[in-house]
């Protein structure tokens, strides 16, 4: 009998990779490979409503532990892009339902925190269900997204640190500034 694939299966694989490779580029790419499998299992997201990660109505994590590792679900509506933002942690995003208009932004200055901050859009792509992308370690974990084609997008997001309590940065490319925002503030 084949073992059933569960959240625990995924987390077990992630921990094995982190032990072997840490959160190196190679390690995060391997985790993205496992995330592509998890993203083919929308049923593991459960039935409860999913909060908007940027308005504070955060839903219960699917997994979290004392190391900071946390797996959450996120929903992004099609109305408008999220702010250009970072979470203060590496992460891996896997779309399990809907399509995601996903932007990768890069910080061009030497800074890591709030205040003056030069950022530029480096890539925009549509993520299909089953696709996964890596959020590199800070300060380059900068992105923006929305549901594509007038539909919301739903995704699993694994973070290396508990981003539900860490401050985030919201970037304004026109003003070349970044503002620190606590999760749930806006
Ligand atoms: Fe985000």
Structure report:
This protein is α+β, with helices and mostly antiparallel strands and 186 residues long. Helix content is 16%, strand content 35%. The strands form three sheets. It has a five-stranded antiparallel β-sheet with strand order 1-2-10-4-8, covered by helices on one side. Helix 1 runs antiparallel to helix 2. The chain starts with 6 loop residues before the first helix and ends in a 5-residue tail after the last strand. 34% of the residues are buried. The chain binds fe (ii) ion (FE2). Residues 85, 87, 143 line the site of fe (ii) ion.
Concise overview:
The protein contains 2 helices and 12 strands, in the order H-H-E-E-E-E-E-E-E-E-E-E-E-E.
Q: Cofactors and ligands present?
A: fe (ii) ion
| Radius of gyration, CA atoms, in whole angstroms | 16 Å
- Rough outline: globular
- The strand line-up of the biggest sheet is 1-2-10-4-8
Unreliable parts: none
Instruction: Tell me how many strands there are.
Output: 12
Spell out the helices and strands N to C: HHEEEEEEEEEEEE
As a percent range, the share of helical residues equals: 10-25%
**Average pLDDT score:** 93
Report the structural category.
Answer: alpha+beta
Number of helices: 2
State the end-to-end CA separation: 48 Å
Q: Largest beta sheet, briefly?
A: 5 strands, antiparallel
- What amount of the residues lies in strands? 25-35%
